[in-house]
Backbone:
């Protein structure tokens, strides 16, 4: 769906169209942060000063490209997940049968609307770990870019979490909702801690 230029994506994002929304924007932000990992690694390839980590940085480029593609795919997946939820909100609820049917459809749609943002969070977490390695092994002249990438992926991860919280809150199945919320809380804490560590490492090297 979203083979758009940056300007076109932003124009669609800023319109009244229901998608893309916060989830898609989060995935894009994570992909951009991940691309910075690839950039730093690419600048390190072939440099004699970093001869001992050449295979590592080449592997980082491959991993970063895979993560970028997965996050870009999740922009589309987020839009697909939101569409049935959007339709479910407009279902009639005049009779008991209609109410029961709407509740059933809503519940399924809410689950999907939580699963995709959590997948975005997981990919952003992988990107944060990759950027940590990039900051440690990449060229010092682009160390600030690795730091910027970490901050972007952490922000994207937390932004995606908001879609989980708002949808889990509406679920009838409170046990399942609690599972989503608990997993989300745990991943946010891990990501915040790790991204702060990488940021401080970068800052200590460049300030």
Residues:
């Amino acid at each position: 769906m979203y083979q758009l230029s940056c300007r076109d994506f932003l124009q669609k994002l800023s319109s009244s169209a229901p998608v893309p929304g916060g989830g898609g924007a989060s995935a894009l932000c994570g992909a951009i942060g991940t691309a910075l990992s690839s950039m730093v690694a690419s600048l390190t390839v072939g440099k004699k000063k970093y001869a001992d980590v050449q295979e590592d940085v080449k592997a980082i480029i491959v991993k970063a490209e895979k993560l970028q593609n997965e996050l870009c795919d999740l922009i589309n997946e987020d839009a697909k997940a939101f569409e049935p939820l959007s339709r479910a909100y407009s279902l009639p609820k005049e009779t008991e049968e209609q109410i029961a049917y709407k509740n059933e459809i809503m519940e399924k749609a809410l689950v999907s609307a939580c699963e995709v943002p959590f997948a975005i969070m997981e990919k952003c977490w992988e990107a944060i770990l990759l950027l940590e390695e990039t900051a440690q092994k990449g060229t010092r002249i682009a160390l600030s870019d690795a730091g910027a990438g970490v901050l972007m992926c952490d922000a994207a991860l937390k932004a995606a979490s908001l879609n989980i919280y708002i949808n889990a809150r509406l679920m009838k199945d409170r046990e399942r909702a609690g599972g989503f919320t608990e997993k989300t809380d745990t991943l946010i804490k891990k990501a915040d801690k790790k991204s702060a560590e990488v940021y401080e490492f970068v800052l200590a090297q460049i300030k």
